[in-house]
Specification:
Length: 336
């Protein structure tokens, strides 16, 4: 089904709940519908692909075409000795897919429970949490190239995944619409419980199984992260910065309790939430914009904030982290 609507209200299509419009909104639920659209209409200069809207911030109304791919359905497409291959439409809500996989006792996605957004965004920003990234489970990504109007397919390797990064945010930015993703899930689970207190929290529920891991991750997330249905937010606003080992070691001599994680042989990942908290921002609120009281990486809209105000706050945070620590924060949220 196609929906093509002028002057469309995006308030419920962005998890910051910003009251913005788009000049034109195009939703499709089948690959052929997108291909038909591209055959009959020329793409305007300004367009944007919007999935679940949980990782972007509109500064103003969007004066262009908003493309909303909404393919539904999850199905098994293959099986071998150890794995089941599930293909999910890009419009499937991410957590519905995780819930379903856990229900069928397939393992691999349980650490990624309750991440807001749709399946289509998972490969684009390589979503991750609690020691697992989408890339660990993505087998294939299918989509349509907006320039050639051809159906395209990418293997895991071709996606060039990195920390919250992929080819779809770089060379292919705005060129490919992801329409479905094939995930490779374990029949015989191997759990990843290395992150923080995950293992001990799961143990409290008794047996270590996919369902208990999911439940634990949900409890941890609910205790730290605001529910976008209640308070507008887009999860982590910034990425955890990656710096040289030398730089991290120097910082560590001054700030002994700075949390650091090995990123590669030469590089270290720092906890942006810690840096922001130490600059005094945690729980900050001015009017309807603020920093979440339980997780300083999350910027929130308490009601009627404007996109520009949220961006202004993010700039203030960036500046103060740079002044205190000499660390440049990059936004994870896509600012439009
Ligand atoms: N920390 C603070 N203060 C804070 C927040 C964190 O001191 O306000 C410290 C924590 O005590 C801990 C360290 O920073 O020592 C890391 O904190 P946490 O475990 O909460 O994770 P994070 O690095 O802040 C990342 C992801 C989250 C993901 C969690 C759990 C990024 C940008 N964020 O946050 O992802 O849920 O790990 O795996 O990588 C998202 O991307 O939207 C997101 C929520």
């Amino acid at each position: 089904m196609i929906r093509l609507i002028d002057n469309f209200d995006l308030t419920t299509y962005n998890s910051f709940n910003l009251k913005v419009n788009t000049d034109r909104f195009f939703e499709f639920t089948e690959v052929e519908e997108l291909q038909f659209f591209l055959q009959t209409e020329k793409l305007p200069e300004k367009y944007l692909v919007l999935g679940g809207g949980s990782n972007l911030l509109f500064q103003n109304n969007f004066e262009g075409l908003l493309i909303h791919p909404n393919l539904q359905g999850v199905g098994e497409i293959n099986e071998d000795r150890n794995y089941i291959y599930l293909e999910a439409g890009c419009g499937v809500e991410w957590d519905d897919l995780v819930r379903l996989s856990v229900q069928y006792e397939l393992s691999g996605l349980e650490n990624l429970s309750l991440i807001p957004g749709n399946v289509g965004a998972a490969p684009v920003q390589n979503i991750g949490a609690y020691g697992v990234e989408a890339k660990d489970r993505i087998h294939l990504v299918r989509g349509v190239n907006l320039e050639s109007n051809e159906v395209v397919e990418f293997t895991n390797e071709e996606c060039k995944f990195g920390y919250r990064n992929s080819i779809f945010k770089n060379e292919l930015k705005n060129k490919v619409v992801v329409t479905s993703v094939v995930f490779k899930l374990d029949k015989f689970p191997e759990f990843n419980l290395e992150y923080g207190a995950l293992k001990s929290e799961v143990d409290k529920l008794g047996e270590v199984n996919t369902s208990n891991v999911r439940q634990t991750v949900i409890s941890i997330r609910e205790s730290k992260l605001p529910d976008p249905a209640k308070v507008g937010n887009a999860g982590s606003f910034f990425k955890n910065p990656i710096v040289s080992n030398d730089f991290a070691n120097r910082l560590k001599t001054t700030f002994k309790d700075l949390p650091v994680y090995a990123s590669s042989e030469e590089q270290t990942k720092l906890a942006a939430g810690w840096l922001i908290e130490k600059c005094g921002w945690k729980g900050f609120r001015e009017g309807d914009v603020g920093v979440h009281p339980n997780q300083a990486l999350v910027i929130v809209n308490y009601g009627n904030a404007k996109g520009e105000q949220l961006v202004h706050l993010s700039t203030q945070i960036k500046n103060s982290v740079f002044e205190k620590f000499g660390v440049q924060l990059d936004t994870e949220v896509n600012i439009i």
